[in-house]
């Protein structure tokens, strides 16, 4: 009971968490720069010494870190130190430029023999000395920044090493009673550390609750609770009113309503934390241990706030018509209580784990707390998945669709189920840190996926509204740019697709460089470093290379198929290109995408292009022998897709095969015959052989020709007129060129007449010839004219 009471007191203190904005790595100097610059007016020697001392302290903390979590605080502080160095450098650069300009006005010192006024020489010497001091300080700041940047790289390497060792470390199983013995009966050393930590909390709380301060403390706590409980509702209602009355009716209003709910939740939590931190620190500053704990606790608070805020916004159980995902109401109501429960569990359990890290407790107790966190969080997520599965089965049995995009929903459900199964298996086999890592990453994945989904919907709806011809912005753009509705829709589709692709890239980077407890500032810094280019080369997590390669293949293929569907269904239909050109562009895009996915996969595996010389040599030998035909067909396919001598939909004839081109692949082309069968022709034949493209010119006409043999005793003029009239009177035979009846052959067996007519398309010839033959036989029978009979043997 004693330790339970202390834990309750500790959680009560934890609710009075800090805000990062109040915790600075070093004081910021606001001294003005005078017209006559003096180095001491902007950056003093004491500030430089303080920064050097802080860097030395950070190095000492890094060297003493024994687990992965203990390096999060020093990493944040080093980043803050770099920002402070940049600020001081910005203050000194104008002074350096001004001193250089003043020295330029005075000019260089004259030769020794030339006399100079003493006041000018004194002023030049003063300015030169001041500039030398500024240059020295700038050099010291540059050296300090370089050392801090190297320390960041070292911290990242140490964190990777500690993470690998912790994840692969095996201890007792959670089924072993000895695993929990340390948690329920901690060693005496850990008890002393915990009691010392509670004493620090008591001293801080006592300073704010002494006589004369209690009224203000009570008022500030009540105000913080009011902002958290009622402020969120007021802010959410206010933002909802603005969205309803200021945003147009439709999808954009629904997206902004969801975003406003998340913003109101985060804003109210931020204000409440600001007030509570001011309450506990206004009389007595926090000790180093409490400062580290408060920083970590503030991060987990924002993580829990994001879980609850995003869940409330996406589920929208109170207003189902505002819901962005296509969830049915029973499924949303089934999920509703679990995010809040998960957030509360994370708030308490992760705070307890942070205490063990800050106070430096024994590894046995740290592992026990990690097992407790992983077990409870995994069990809660497993309960959520079971509840969702049961609800979906009940809805399917009742004939109700649980959700619209069942493929994506099924993939997410399967992914979460597999992750939880692995986490529970790791707990049973003794891989406690691995289980905790999986559960943390699963929660982080939910936050990133939910935020990405919300932002992509908002961006897509915003583009559709901004470029819609029905709204004022779209009409203004049409008049300003002088474009039509089709072009405006194309711009909307392109910007929407590019924006969603950029958000997806940022989400993937965030998944890799972030985690539970990452602040927005850390994420922004890491994302910019990754996108800058150098970060991609410096990020070298060897154990994860295989996983990254698998993710590159899966995500790459998904992106290619999604973007191809977007091209086929959204963008290309809004262009003025013919269907054949659209199909060729879509196929060419897919081929380029597959090549890029292959290169990205090799890069994820750590394959250096300089090491591929032996692969190229082996391929050249293979191409010379077995792959020659494949390469030839591949190159021919690229030529067909770019030069387009034939395209999808053309009627061609090659090597006795005549039909419509159905698809042009990289290796071969599919030709559909009249009987709907498919002939696959290698691309090299289409390039190297003579090919008849009936529809290439776009104005090709079909020729309907019939050869008929009559007896020698007929009246040729009568037969000729009958054939000519039959062709001329048919509605599909063109007047120009006019039908022609020719005398082809004269044999003892009879007279052969050939009649020819033209139609609009070669595809019509077969059907029209059949109709003409029926009509000719009918008229010949009416006129009493018979066809010649073949000779008998």
TrEMBL record:
Membrane topology value: Multi-pass membrane protein
One Pfam family assigned to this protein is: MS_channel_2nd
Q: Any transmembrane segments, and where? A: 215-235, 256-280, 338-355, 367-386, 407-431, 437-455, 501-520, 540-560, 581-600, 612-631
Please report the stretch or stretches of sequence annotated as the Mechanosensitive ion channel MscS domain.
630-695
Q: What does the UniProt entry say about where the protein is found?
A: Cell membrane
Please list the residue ranges annotated as the Mechanosensitive ion channel MscS C-terminal domain: 707-787
Query: Which InterPro entries is this protein grouped with?
Result: DUF3772, LSM_dom_sf, MS_channel_1st, MS_channel_C, MscS-like_channel, MscS_beta-dom_sf, MscS_channel_2nd, MscS_channel_C_sf
Q: Tell me the ranges covered by the Mechanosensitive ion channel transmembrane helices 2/3 domain, including all copies.
A: 587-628
Task: Please list the residue ranges annotated as the DUF3772 domain.
Answer: 140-200
Q: Kindly state which keywords UniProt assigns to this record, in alphabetical order.
A: Cell membrane, Membrane, Transmembrane, Transmembrane helix
Entry similarity comment = Belongs to the MscS (TC 1.A.23) family.
Official protein name in the record: Mechanosensitive ion channel protein
User: What organism is the protein native to?
Assistant: Pseudomonas umsongensis
